[in-house]
Design brief:
This protein has twelve helices and 13 strands. The protein has helices at 17-20, 25-42, 90-93, 96-107, 110-128, 146-154, 165-176, 206-215, 233-238, 256-265, 279-289, 296-312, and strands spanning 46-48, 60-66, 69-74, 80-82, 84-86, 136-140, 157-161, 178-180, 191-197, 217-228, 252-253, 268-275, 318-325. The strands form three sheets. The protein has a seven-stranded mixed beta sheet, sandwiched between helices. Strands 2-3-4-11 form a four-stranded antiparallel beta sheet, with no helix packed on it. Strands 1-5 form a two-stranded antiparallel ribbon. The longest helix has 19 residues, at 110-128.
Length: 327
């Protein structure tokens, strides 16, 4: 695994907890999950996961239940996954409610996301693959397209892929780019960079998904992936009460070990790995949900001081990695 230099700039700005973890954040997340579990149970129902979603091993140990559904740890690759998943994921990701929720979550603080996160992600790409105008980029799970907007402004020739048909149409119209829908392996174009931000944990078969991404890369192309990190301080603290633990949406919970196995099985080479999280913000939201008074200035000070150390210890609650095709 090679060492990629860390870009400097907007990502060094303190995480704004008021923006990212507003009052009542965790309560709304939990209520949304309760409603989705009820929707799935009344609809197509659930299918069992007898095998690890990464390595396919049947040997596992129970960790703890969340919303009444047991989370397991694979004894081979260390991956975490729930005992069952929704049979029909369109019940989770389609419909007017999902579109409106996405718009509310990601467009309400668009300027902050563009300044604090989009530039950071573009700089990470450029640090490993020098940018030249016209490079092609596919953002898988592009959502409302806020990252596509920034990449387009930077000079990339952008396209998106979105699992929700309604969201794909909305983003294509609002960003002014092609947004694919249906299946990744049906795309015939090839790209210099493929990004997956908070996507791989949502898919029922992460190995097949990353393998399809590998097939979309041009020679020398790279993929940049962000997802929750199970080995994080915030998840260790909150456990099943973490906002990142969602049986209907977060089907997989990755660690560095299971990321390495994921890349190997997908025919990719892991280039770079690190964590960067909002652990203090999530612990604040968790304590608030338990009745602790919200002292935002205190938590913001703790975040400014401690989050860099948490990230340096590789226990931030989001992991990110770059990979390229093997060989």
């Amino acid at each position: 695994m090679t060492s990629t230099p860390e870009p400097r700039g907007p990502q060094d700005e303190s995480l704004n907890l008021a923006q990212m973890r507003p009052v009542g954040f965790l309560g709304r997340m939990r209520q949304s999950e309760v409603e989705l579990i009820d929707k799935v149970s009344r609809g197509a129902g659930w299918i069992d996961n007898p095998l690890c979603l990464v390595c396919g091993n049947a040997q596992r140990e129970p960790r703890w239940p969340a919303h009444g559904i047991m989370l397991f740890r694979c004894l081979d690759c260390g991956h975490h996954y729930f005992e069952r998943m929704p049979r029909d994921l369109t019940e989770v990701y389609e419909g007017p409610a999902y579109l409106e929720q996405s718009k509310d979550s990601y467009l309400s603080n668009l300027d902050y996301r563009l300044r604090r996160f989009a530039r950071e992600r573009l700089d990470l790409l450029a640090a490993n693959k020098p940018f030249s105008s016209g490079q092609t980029l596919l953002d898988v799970g592009c959502g409302t397209g806020w990252f596509l907007r920034a990449a387009k402004e930077r000079g990339y020739d952008v396209s998106g892929f979105e699992f929700s048909a309604a969201l794909a149409r909305f983003t294509a119209d609002s960003v002014g780019c092609r947004v694919y829908h249906s299946k990744l392996d049906a795309i015939t174009a090839r790209f210099d960079s493929v990004t997956l931000f908070d996507v791989i944990e949502h898919v029922p078969d992460p190995v097949s998904t990353l393998r399809a991404v590998c097939g979309l890369l041009r020679p020398g192309g790279i993929t940049l992936v962000f997802c929750p990190n199970f080995d994080s301080l915030a998840i260790r603290a909150a456990g099943a009460e973490s906002n990142l633990v969602m049986p209907t949406r977060h089907l997989s919970y990755f660690t560095r070990t299971s990321v390495q196995r994921l890349c190997e099985l997908a025919g990719m080479r892991l280039l770079w790995f690190r964590t960067a999280g909002i652990d203090i913000g999530d612990i604040m939201a968790w304590q608030e949900s338990r009745g602790m008074p919200r002292d935002l200035s205190l938590w913001q000070s703790l975040s400014d001081t401690l989050q860099p150390a948490i990230d340096a210890l590789q226990i931030g609650n989001h992991l990110r990695f770059m990979a390229a095709a093997s060989g």
